[in-house]
Design goal:
The protein is α+β, with helices and mostly antiparallel strands. Helices cover 53% and strands 20% of the residues. The protein contains three helices and five strands, in the order ααββββαβ. It is rod-shaped and about 70 Å long. The two termini are 36 Å apart.
C-alpha cells in the first residue's frame, strides 16, 4: 500500500511539470495529452515494482501465518542452503549457516522450496 501511495503521488507530481513544459513549447501535442502520458508511464512503472514485490509479500505472510518455519529452527532447503532461521520478514528470510554466514532467501523462493525442518 505504501508503494502504491508513493506511485500515485509521483504520478501527480510528474503531470504538472510536463503540462507546463508542453504549454510553453510550440508544436507539441495538446497540453492535456503529454501530462497524461507521463502519468501513465509513472503508474505503469510503479505497478511493475508492486507486482515484483507482491509474491514475496504474500509468501512472507503465509510462511509466518503457517508457523511451519520459525526463528531459531534449523532448516535445510532443497536448493542446498541450510542453517538456523534468524529472521522472517515481509520480503525475505535470513538463515545463519553453520560457518556463521548469513543467507538471505526471498520468501517466494522459500515457499517454493522443499524444506526439511530439523
Amino acid at each position: 500500500m505504501l508503494i502504491f501511495s508513493g506511485v500515485v503521488v509521483a504520478a501527480r507530481i510528474t503531470g504538472e511539470p510536463v503540462s507546463l513544459y508542453s504549454r510553453r513549447v510550440r508544436g507539441l501535442p495538446s497540453s492535456y495529452l503529454l501530462p497524461r502520458v507521463a502519468q501513465v508511464a509513472v503508474v505503469s512503472t510503479g505497478m511493475l515494482v508492486v507486482l515484483q514485490t507482491l509474491p514475496n509479500l504474500l509468501s512472507g505472510v503465509l510462511i509466518i501465518a503457517s508457523g511451519q518455519v520459525r526463528p531459531g529452527e534449523y532448516i535445510k532447503l532443497s536448493s542446498g542452503e541450510e542453517g538456523y532461521v534468524e529472521d522472517i520478514n515481509w520480503r525475505n528470510t535470513t538463515i545463519r549457516a553453520l560457518p556463521q554466514n548469513m543467507v538471505v532467501v526471498p520468501n517466494s523462493t522459500l515457499s517454493a522450496s522443499t524444506i526439511t525442518n530439523h
